[in-house]
Amino acid sequence: MIYEHFIGYFCEKKTTKVLTEMKKHSDIKNIDELFPLYKVTNPMRKKINSMVFYANDVRAQLSSQIYINASVTLLVLSGNASLCANFRKYPIERNSIALLSVLHLFQIENCSDDFSCICLFVSKTFMEEMDPTEMIYVRTKYGVRLYSSPVIKIEEKDAELLKMRVDEINRSLDNEEHYYYKQMILSSVIAFFLDMSNLIEHNLQNLAKDVGLSRYEKLTKSFIELLTTNYRQEHSVNFYAKKLNITAHYLTLIVKQITGQSVSEFIFEMLYSDSRMLLVQSKLSIQEIAALLHFSDQSSFGKFFKRRSGHSPFSYRGKTEE
To answer: Which of the four pLDDT bands, split at 50, 70 and 90, describes residue 214?
Structure first.
């Protein structure tokens, strides 16, 4: 217990440092603010966008610490540089990928004159629109390692595949006259993330065996595995902590340290994603959905859903059926 309190204190202090730096940092940007030379008139490109950054673009836009309200996938095309993410430095070069969450404070330093990279920005709101429960699991499965070690190296053929996927996203974004415009964008983005997850699976096979994982990463991975099979029935942090034979306070501190998200946020994200899917894709009544997700009653489910979406379950279902 003394050991847990000591480690908990350390994690709390380190996480607090990151979050404090983010809060006091003035350079917090939305996606469209990263494209000052190009007037963003397409509303969808304010939620999801991509472009090639060259050395001068990086020096102008990304060389000082920045916090972006989006997930960022950065694929290096040429040259080399140093990525600083949450106060750690990682070398990046051709065919390196950096995967940065909305909780990464980052900058790119010392880029060579021939440096170039593709940056794909996907806002949190767009992520929520595309996230069926399986996609959340795909993202969180490797998020444990990638939050603290966000750079991986891939082969040339895999880099070409990801470039092709980004081109497909851009084509979908530009085809505003398509009758199924939003669905086409969603499909192209999901295809990108599925290919990305496949590459991560092959490049980080150690994760399957827990080789090289720290104790905190192993605990967080075990929590996520428990969560994916129990989130409908179990909404309490205490349940997951008890299963892992640790205190709820300790679990909360460790998960926050490793992923940047709290245990409660993970639970609510899974519930919210599942509830959206059930409202749109099933014929269950709202009362039946509330019971399936083990809310105490329809009213408590309605309050939970409205806090997350800004809409009642009834109005959300009606809005998606229009």
So the answer is: confident
Residue 169: give the domain boundaries: 28-204
Residue 14 has pLDDT above 50, yes or no: no
- Give the tens place of pLDDT for each residue, 43-92: 898 889 998 999 999 998 888 888 787 889 999 999 999 999 877 889 99
Nearest to 148 by CA among 109, 104, 107: 104
The edge-to-edge listing of strands for the beta sheet with 48-54 is 48-54, 116-123, 70-78, 96-100, 151-153
Structural domain total, the chain = 1
Domain annotation covers residue 145: yes
Evaluate whether residue 198 is within a structural domain: yes
For residue 309, being part of any structural domain is answered with no
Contact between 51 and 31 (Cβ < 8 Å) = no
Confirm whether 53 is domain-assigned: yes
- Among 160, 44, 41, smallest CA distance to 95 is for 160
For 194-230, letters b (16+ CB in 10 Å) and e give: eebbebbeebbeebeeeeebeebbebbbbbbeebbee
- The two tokens of residue 249 are 């306070």
Residue 146: both structure tokens together: 């990638």
CATH of the domain at 46: 2.60.120.280
Under 8 Å between Cβ of 152 and 203 = yes
Quote the DSSP letter at residue 247.
-
Q: Which positions ≥6 away from 46 have C-beta within 8 Å?
A: 30, 31, 32, 40, 123
- Specify the DSSP class assigned to residue 79: S
Statement: residue 4 has pLDDT above 50: no
